[in-house]
What we know:
Mean pLDDT: 94
Oligomer: single chain
Strand content: 15-25%
CATH class of the domain at 188-373: Alpha Beta
Strand order of the largest sheet: 7-6-14-8-9-13-10-12-11-15-16
CATH architecture of the domain at 188-373: Alpha-Beta Complex
Number of helices: 23
Low-confidence stretches: none
Distance between the termini: 45 Å
Largest sheet: 11 strands, mixed
Structural class: alpha/beta
Shape: globular
Amino acid sequence: MQQAEILLTGIVQGVGFRPFVKRTALENGIIGYVENREFGVKIIAQASKKIIEKFLQDILDKAPAVSTILTHSIKYLDQELSEYSSFEIAPSKKKGEISALIPPDIATCDVCAQEIFDENDRHYQYPFTNCTNCGPRFSIIQSIPYDRKNTTMRKFIMCDDCNREYTTVEDRRYHAQPNACPKCGPELRFIEIIDESPIATAKREKAFEKTISLLQTGEIVAIKGIGGYHLVCNALNKEVVENLRNLKFRPHKPFALMARDIETIEEYCEVNMDEKNMLEGQQKPIVLLSKKNDILEHVAPGVKDLGFMLPYTPLHYLLFKQFRLLVFTSGNVSEEALENNDDSAYQNLANITQYYLSYNREIFNRIDDSIVTYAGDQRILIRKARGFVPKPINIKRGIGKPQIFASGADMKSSFGLTKENIFLGSQYLGDLAYTSNTKFYKESLNYFQSIFEMKPQVVIADSHPNYFSTMIAQEFAEENELPIHKIQHHKAHIYSVMAENDLENVLGVSFDGTGYGEDGNVWGGEFFIINKTESERFAHLNYVAMVSGERAAKEPWRMALIYLYNYYPEKVESIITEKKFPQKDMIFLQLLNDSVRIQTSSMGRFFDAVASLIDVCHFNSYEGEAAMKLEALADESFSEYYHFSFDKQQSLIEVDMIIEGIVKDIQEMKSKEYISSKFHFTIAKMVFDLCIKMKNESGIDAVALSGGVFQNVVLVNMIKRVFSSSELKLFWNEKVPPNDAGIALGQVYSYLLRSR
Length: 756
């Protein structure tokens, strides 16, 4: 007989890990115990060495799918064998600094889903059913070790039946911390705003029935979910969808949809196997799917995709017993933070709806739905939130390095914290230009620091002096007397891909809408050669004047005017008419004025300009609207391109021939689909040609591509096709979004490479 100490780190709490270990121990004839610790899980196993080794291998091979084992170790103990008669789950202990990780919220498992429709089961029609394999986690955990007393379930005392499940090792609810039933758990409440006051007018089944009735009669209802509120209405009722648009000030932005099942989704969209697996998996994010028809065009006007998700809580399953398809969009005032607090929701959403289906369990951590799309079999995260956060990213280069706080960027903000080899990125936090999102950012930063006992020793920020995230980082550094380092925005994009793939030398392609450049201009169409800590800006789109500042990002016609004025001025009057755009002459004066100093190389603004030139979109009512509508017209199998040139001496990609070619195609009455396809393929060829030139100069064959433009699936697939016969290897973001939400990871990795 031998006795071994096994230590496991990662997401090994809150995922049924200890019950799994106990069952595995009993199967192998092991005696001893398992306990939650501040670092993860500790196991004392007593048996022969051969059996202990098989036991450990079984743990590694068969661990719960929602767990993540980052490290494991085994040490055989020399002391006298302890007296154990069985294998037990010991009370949780905390003896040192916390390094354990907590799991994300987990979609309802199939067994729980079956129980809520079984009239003979005590969980029948109970909207908060869960087990060790599913249910709320991150959204309810207040501190660790992960025990019920450290969650917002602590006020709900388990009844005898629930306690029996909780203490029976063979039961799948064994040590399921949120375990509950109709007798002892949270309950539904229907709230109405009456005379400006929230009044509970129904509870439990009656609350649910009232919600069903209102949705069926064309009302909008705010429904409290795992991480915050949703605004819900009948997706097939164009009138109520239009009403929601008006009330939420979202004239064109797509709404998310929830459907009863895959079969329903397939009536409206193409669904491949990767997309199906993501829709039906444990995370159940919103998945962007290609439209089959225009039946739901009013839900997502002018774009090629619909954003669908499947039910992921028992309440959703019960709701979709009555419906097949509903709009399920974030419950917030447009651009503001997601509502997770009941009183705040009643106040802030009152202009949108007076009806709320709520419940009496607190959401401690607000978290929105994640959004995913696919380019072939490549997963692209658009928004990283529920189901993905707070999953760690392993960075081997962090071992032995100082703890880092990376503040990220502004428009799609997300910060990151490191401890040794672990990078923890926050959930999506929104645009920091809005006060509620800045508050959300600071709340989440305090939570992450507290729950994981992280004590940053270094601060990293974007080099933009006026970013809110940079100002937060500077305040943090000053308050804690820490050094602060800054990295240029587009380089951080490339370093984020390098971090995911443990790369040191790459050819970097960084395309997005904006970012403060090292020369004071607005960058966004950049090519870099990065050799460990050295980075050369090899090429960029030719600069054009950034007239009107941020308004140019919201009004693509301005960018169309600027590009025409630069490269094809004789065609300005015929394309950008004064009748259509009465402010045109004012911008002309600014263009003619030598005092215009700010210029941009942004690829995002170039897409905007082309979208406006061909009359696809002149005003962005939401970020990326013009580019998304331009993408919707493109055929990714297209292979014609507009010519462009490269001035090596000035590192400029000259796009005058592209503009001239587009204008000529407009004059020749070529279709918008033709021009969009040709433009997209031109950018793909541009990427390829410049990467070949960079490879010839540097000898590097790894290409890292990042930035919000690479959310464009048509462009990504075209680039893959163009590169398919070359020796160059493409690397993309897959663990973080390619947009600004992935910046924090790049900030961290840049510092780690420089601090070797």
